[in-house]
Amino acid sequence: MYIKKTAMATTMTSQQNGVGQPLHWVAVFSLFLLAILLSPVSQAQDKTYIIGVLAKRGSVQAKEKWSATADFLTAQVDGAKFELLPLSFDEVPPVVATGEVDFLIANPSIYVEMETLYGASRIATLKNLGPDGQILTVFGGVILVKADRNDIQKITDLKKISSFMAVKETSLGGFQVAWQELLKSDIDPYSDFNRLVFRSKHDAVVLAVGNREVDAGTVRTDTLERMAAEGKINIDDFKVIGAPYGEYAEGFPYKASTMLMPEWPFAKMAHTPDVIAQKVAIALLSMSPDDPAAISGKNAGWTVPLNYQPIRNLMQSLRIGPFQDYAKLSLNKFLVEYWRWILAFVISFTLLVVLLSYILKIYRKLTVSQEKLKEEITERVHVEQRLAEYTQELEQQIQHNNKSLEHLGKIHKFHELTSLLITTLNPHDLLQKALDRVVDLSGSEIGGIYLFEQQQQLRPFVSHGVSMNTMEVIGLHESLPAQVVADKKLRHIKITPKEYDGMIDLGLCKGRPQEVLILPMFSKNKSLGAIILGSLNHYEKDDLEVLTHMANQISIMLENALANKETEYLSIRDSLTNLYNRRYLNEQLEIEVKKSQRHGYNLGLLILDIDHFKKVNDELGHPVGDQVLISISKTLLEQVRDIDIVGRFGGEEFMVILPSTDKKGSIKIAEKIRTAIQDLVLAELKSQNITVSIGVNSYLENNVQSTDEFVQITDQALYKAKQSGRNRCHFAAEGLELDSVPRSE
Question: What contacts 24+ positions apart, CB below 8 Å, involve 26-29?
Fold first, then answer.
């Protein structure tokens, strides 16, 4: 209408303006072209999407049922137009494969197959209506027998029957779900039943069981309730075996024997844009049960997509649809599907084999090297053990050699000591040298030697490291040293008593010895004394043996020295008076004269003679004379000094050598002697007195040239004293006669 009015107006305007008839046709043609150009633009605004639908009862019935749904989506989704394409079971796969449809409405089995093969995905699940109007989103299968079959109470009892009927092999609710349950009960319907019959219609299966044409059958859930509602059967004439289970089994209103599966899905194809699929899903979820599309489709609309994994599991376990070869090994299929993985595996395996070969080669080399290393280590350990044993033996040998050398050293020093002692005749010097060497050899700090005396005492004789003042005289049986001397056995004291405190000088203080050793000294079973040693260290067993030998050797040397001293003593002593004899007097006088000559010391000399001594011998006898000589000898020793030398010059004559004494001193000593002898009272003389005449001389005053001259002059002085009346002293140089009271002979 709008186009005709415009053309008329244009014609009228053209006529009014004087434009001719040709302009009218130009205007009409222009408007026609404009309409043609605008028409495609308007049509291009709505894109057409094809919905494939499974036509299980034919195309006409499918269009009657689902066309309203396509119109509903066209009205709800802006810019999109939806058209319906009915498909048979066999037409669905190729149409989906070529992308001729954008959406698909099919039973769950076909959907899972399309999902597996071509990537279809569900966007909604159908809400079906039961015979009593209840909304259902799941369904299952019913395994039924006649109600009077008491021998069949559970699915495993179906092993007893011979015939079984189902709708068709491709029917999910009419056979496949029941097939799965039979297999779970170890019943294979294809081999365990004598007859397996398919009737295409659910009602036909129910009627066949009711008429006892077969022992048992299976149909989709709600079939019994629908047929009972339609008056076709009495539902109590049938018994359903088993019970529903699964994710959606709770609250399911109808009898069932199997797992419940989700209803038909509304699915998008892999190439369908997600935006349009989302709009379609929203539109489907908004469809109400009273919508014409729902009424036409005999459903209550659509809900969110349910979980179709149970259907996939069923098809895999039954090996149907795309899972016919599921769990079957097909080399060709395996190679085609997994050739990349196989190639990668072969390459990896080859590399692994090469690597393992290389590692094995290295391992073998390492093993050989390790074995060699173990052998070398073992050999080295053995060598080290042998070396350690040899080293230990060597160390022991060295220690033994060191001890032997040390022992030999001690023996050598012992022999040195023996040699030293042999050359020493003086007992005191001998024992001092011996003690010093023993202390050194034993590693001691202190030492002392006690000698046994006739008074049954041990008297300290020499010491080392201690003062002689600290060494007291020891009585026999009063101390441990005395016991050692008595029983002639060594004592090794490892814990020293308190009386040894302060005996060792440590520099800043004095300490107690750690150990004390007491060695007996005896020779020819005669006790001589004891050697006492003290040390801050321990005495070893070898030390005790060496020291014992040394003590024995020292004892022998001491006995020899004492014997030599006694011999020497006897050789210079007068046997009667025990004074020095004439030989010793001459030797000592010679020595003193030389000292006087060398140093200018003065020297006095006295020669005494007993007055009328021959008369004593003749009248009283020689024993009395001997006693007189002994008494005068004692008196002489009592009256002289320690430095003076007194001796028997011969017969009844005595000589006194006075070192460092001048004339006056010599006369004084002579007079002292004369007076002391004069006052002697001897019982043997029977009231007779003994007197002496003394010749006195001084070496420097008389300018004497020799010893003999010195003696002769002194002897002359004695003679003059005799001539002058006896019992007097006469000094040789002046011929002086001292005032002395003469005594009668």
Answer: none
Between 3.50.50.60, 3.40.190.10, 1.10.150.20, 3.40.50.720, what CATH number should domain 138-260 receive?
Answer: 3.40.190.10
Over the stretch 83-92, which tens digit does the pLDDT of each residue have? Answer: 999 999 899 9
Question: What pLDDT, on the 0 to 100 scale, is given for residue 693?
Answer: 96
Instruction: Give me 179's structure tokens.
Output: 């097939």
The pLDDT assigned to 327 comes to: 56
Picking from 583, 633, 572, 589, the residue whose alpha carbon sits closest to that of residue 608 is: 633
Instruction: Give the number of C-alpha atoms closer than 13 A to the C-alpha of residue 608, restricted to the C-beta side.
Output: 30
Q: Assign 3-class secondary structure to 626-659.
A: HHHHHHHHHHHHHHCCCCCEEEEEECCEEEEEEE
The CB-side HSE value for 364 (13 A sphere, CA atoms) comes to 5
Where are the chain's structural domains? Answer: 1-42, 46-137+263-328, 138-260, 329-399, 424-570, 573-737
Q: Mean pLDDT for the chain?
A: 84
> Does the pLDDT of residue 32 top 70, yes or no?
no
Tell me, what DSSP letter sits at residue 682?
Answer: -
* 124, 301 Cβ separation under 8 angstroms: no
Candidates 529, 449, 451, 535; CA nearest to 493 is 535
Within 10 angstroms of residue 457's Cβ, the number of other Cβ atoms is 15
Which of 56-65, 241-250, 404-413, 617-626 bottoms out in mean pLDDT, i.e. has the lowest? 404-413
For the segment 642-681, what is each residue's pLDDT rounded down to a tens digit?
Answer: 999 999 999 999 999 999 999 999 999 999 999 999 999 8
- In angstroms, the CA 582 to CA 599 distance is 25
* H-run or E-run covering 530: strand 526-535
Fill in the DSSP letter of residue 539: P
Considering the domain 424-570, what is its CATH architecture? 2-Layer Sandwich (3.30)
Identify the CATH number of the domain defined by range 573-737.
3.30.70.270
CATH of domain 46-137+263-328: 3.40.190.10
Residue 419 to residue 65: CA distance in whole angstroms: 149
Two domains, one topology: 138-260 and 424-570: no
Q: How many residues does the chain have?
A: 745
Q: What is the mean pLDDT of residues 554-561?
A: 78
Overall pTM surpassing 0.70 (yes/no): no
Measured CA to CA, the distance from residue 481 to residue 518 in angstroms comes to 7
Q: Which two tokens stand for residue 20?
A: 């001719």
- Judged by DSSP in three states, 715 sits in helix
pLDDT band at 1 (very low <50, low <70, confident <90, very high): very low
Q: Which two tokens stand for residue 105?
A: 């409405």
Number of C-beta neighbours around residue 701 at 10 A: 17
Check residue 415 and give its pLDDT: 65
